[in-house]
Amino acid sequence: RGEISDEVSSTLNALWSGQYRSISCKDLKNAVGRYKSSFRGYEQQDSHEFLTILVDWLHEELNEIRVKRPLKEQNNYGIPDEKAAAMAWEDYTDSNKSVIVKLFAGQQRSCLRCAVCRKESVTFEPFFNLSLPIPPSNSQCSIMECFQLYTKPEQISGWSCPFCKNKKGASKTIDIWEVPPVLVVHLQRFYNDGIWRKRLNMVDFNLNDLDLEGVVKSKKSLYSRYKLYAVSNHYGTMDAGHYTAYCKNAEYNKWFKFDDQDVMEISGNEVRSAAAYILFYTAIDYQAPPVMQD
């Protein structure tokens, strides 16, 4: 009913009004907690889970299409990828049209190749953020290594091929087909090998020019180069941790650290750390539309 959108709007207006030294977004938290019980208390929660839910809710509330229809089943065998991707995107946007889709929605290509007949079953699906694995054996890696691991083929056992009906499995590959104006990258630091653990790897990432030309597969992609504007950091463990944020003020061209009610200027060299958990990028070539005033 628009409640979450109203609370996000009120929070943003308060942040940018210049009237307050700091604000506490209790109303937004309480509103989210009413619809998602895991966020009602004051135990530590996962910021990626919160972000995913929040963006999805904002899209649903702001969706201009009020009567949605189920997505068509994709059967792309023999159809060129560019055409199949365009058909899938048109099908999705026929029922999903919002400012959230315009800013955050990208598209990825999922391919299953039969181990016997080698034919491929290809589907295209949207995403609002990318959740990248971290190479487990390296104490330090680059974000491009995380992208490479994300798109690395994996073996799927027991898959039934729709072409030859064989069940000997397939190799699965996920490719990033199209990237949005605002690219949100989640680093998968938490994993479960019987108990929940956290990877403390230092992931080196680009601040001023993240070039994804070799990662994005569509030849018609509008964007490939990005600049970082914010980082969500997580310190500690699953049970006891603390979040901070690094954000770049475009007006002053300076980075700031946000730690609860405390804000301080930092240098760009301090933005990279082993605590980085979610990275927020904007396309270098993207021109945001002017903000409409009431």
From TrEMBL:
Record domain USP: where: 1-284
InterPro entries in alphabetical order: Papain-like_cys_pep_sf, Peptidase_C19_UCH, Ub_carboxyl-term_hydrolase, USP, USP_CS
Catalysed reactions listed for this entry: Thiol-dependent hydrolysis of ester, thioester, amide, peptide and isopeptide bonds formed by the C-terminal Gly of ubiquitin (a 76-residue protein attached to proteins as an intracellular targeting signal)
A Pfam family: UCH
EC number(s) on file: 3.4.19.12
UniProt GO BP: endosome organization; protein deubiquitination; Ras protein signal transduction
Gene Ontology molecular function terms on file: cysteine-type deubiquitinase activity
Organism the protein comes from: Daphnia pulex (Water flea)
Annotated protein name in UniProt: ubiquitinyl hydrolase 1
Coiled-coil positions: none
